[in-house]
Amino acid sequence: MTSTFLGMPATAPRGVGHLRGDEPFPAAARRSLADPQLRRNLRHATTTIRAKSAAVIAEAPDWQQLRDAGAAIKADVMSRLPELLEQLEAAVTRAGGTVHWAADAVEANRIVTELVAATGSDRAIKVKSMATQEIGLNEALQAAGISPVETDLAELIVQLGDDRPSHILVPAIHRNRAEIREIFLREMPGVDPALTDDPAALAAAARSYLRQTFLDTPVAVSGANFAVAETGTLAVVESEGNGRMCLTLPETLITVMGIEKVVPTWLDLEVFLQLLPRASTGERMNPYTSMWTGVTRGDGPQQVHLVLLDNGRSAVLADEVGRQALHCIRCSACLNVCPVYERAGGHAYGSVYPGPIGAVLSPQLTGVEDNASLPYASSLCGACFDACPVKINIPELLVHLRAAHVAAQRRPTAESIAMAAAAYTMDHPALYAAAQRAARLTRLAGRRGRGLPPPLSGWAIGRDLPQPPPQTFRDWWAER
C-alpha cells in the first residue's frame, strides 16, 4: 500500500531537506556581496559558461524550433502526468525493477535508507542528484549509520568542505582552484602533500581517492535527468564518467527522481538530449549519457529501484500558472545569465535550487510564505526567459508568486497601503493633479532620492527615485 497519489496538494515538510533557508534572501545576499573572492569566482565561472553556451547554440540553426518542441513536450507531460507515471511504473516493473512512491522527503529518505540497510552495506556511493540534496538524503543516511560518498567531483568538493551546493550544474562554483586544493589537503585521506592547484592534478587526486570506493561499495544512489515512460528507461547525463561507475559496478542501484522528469517516448528524449548540453555546459552533447532499463541478468546492478518523489510537486502542478516551473530540465542556463545570481551566489537563496528557477520553484514546493523573499530576488530583466531552453516564463512566475504572497498577508502591509493610496489618487483627477504638483517637492530628496528620510530611505537602496519633469503634461496642455 502507498500513501501517495497525484493531485495531493501538500507542500514539502518542514525540518527535513534543503528547500528553506535560515534567513531571508536580502540578509543572506548582503553578506555574499561583501565577499570579493566569492564575487570574483562567480563572475569568472558564469562568464566562461555563458560564452561556451552561446557559441554552440549559435551552431544550431534549429535552436528555436528545439526550444518550442521542448516546451510543448513538457506542457503535454504536465497535462497527463498521472497517466505517464503509471505507464512508467508498469514498464520499469516489466523490466525487473521495483518502483516506490514517496509522498515527501520523509518517506523518500525512509525508503532509501531501508533499501541500503537491507544490502548490509554501511556505505553508499552517489551520483550527483538534485533530488537527494532536496530531501536531505545524506543526513538521513548518516543518521542510520550509513556513509554517503559523493562521486561527482564538484559534489565531492562540497562534501569534503562541509559546504553546501551553490549552483545546479557546478555545485562548487563558489570555490576557486586554490581553495579546492586546501580542502583536498585537509580532508582527503592519503593525498600527496605536494598537490598543486592544477585542475588535472586535482582531478587525479579525486580519481585516486574514489577508485577503491567504487570497487568496494555494493550499493549506489542516483538521480535521473529523464525517464522514458514507454520503456521504463532511466537516463543520467554527466561530464566525468564517475556516474557511469556508480550505475554499472554496484549490485544494487537506487534512483530518486522527481515525478516531473518523465517524458513520453524516446523521440521526446531526443529533443532534450540536444537542448540540455548546449544550454548547460556549452557542449554539443554530454560526454557521458548513461541509460538503463530494469535488470539485465549478469550485467550491471541486479537490484534496481526507482523512487518517484512528490515532495510538493503536486501542489505546483495544481497551479495552472506556477506549474511551468516543473518544466525545468536543470540546465542552469538561467543562473548563468542572471545578474542577481552572479553577484549574490547560490547560498543566498537558502534552497538547494538557487537562481531564477529556484526563486520560482522553491516557494511553490514549500508554500510561498516559507520562502516569501525569493520571488523578489530578481530584477525582472527577462534574461532567464531568453536563456531557458524550454521557455519557462520565469518573470511571469515571479510576478505571479509576488501576488500570491501579497494576497496571503492577513494584515495590510506598507506596500499594499501605498498601492491602495496610489489607486485611489489616480481614480480622482483633482487629487491626481495635486499629487503631480506635490511631486515636485521630491527634488528636495536629492539626486536619485538618496536624501529621503527613514523609512523612505529604504526604498532608495536598490532603486532610483525618478526626477519629476519641470512641467507636467497638464500644465503644458493648459498653456496651449
From TrEMBL:
Q: Keyword Electron transport, does the record have it?
A: yes
Give UniProt keywords alphabetically: 4Fe-4S, Electron transport, Iron, Iron-sulfur, Metal-binding, Repeat, Transport
Q: Where is the 4Fe-4S ferredoxin-type domain?
A: 325-392
Q: Give the GO terms filed under biological process for this record.
A: lactate metabolic process
Q: Which InterPro entries match?
A: 4Fe4S_Fe-S-bd (IPR017896), 4Fe4S_Fe_S_CS (IPR017900), FTHF_cligase-like_sf (IPR024185), Helical_ferredxn (IPR009051), LUD_dom (IPR003741), LutB/LldF (IPR004452), LutB_C (IPR024569), NagB/RpiA_transferase-like (IPR037171)
Q: Which PROSITE patterns match?
A: 4FE4S_FER_1
Q: What are the boundaries of the region Disordered?
A: 1-24
Q: Can the keyword Amino-acid biosynthesis be found in this entry's annotation?
A: no
Q: In what residue span(s) does the Lactate utilization protein B C-terminal domain sit?
A: 409-480
Q: Where is the LUD domain?
A: 85-298
Q: Name one GO molecular function term.
A: metal ion binding
Q: What is this protein called?
A: L-lactate dehydrogenase complex protein LldF
Which species does the entry assign this protein to? Micromonospora rhizosphaerae
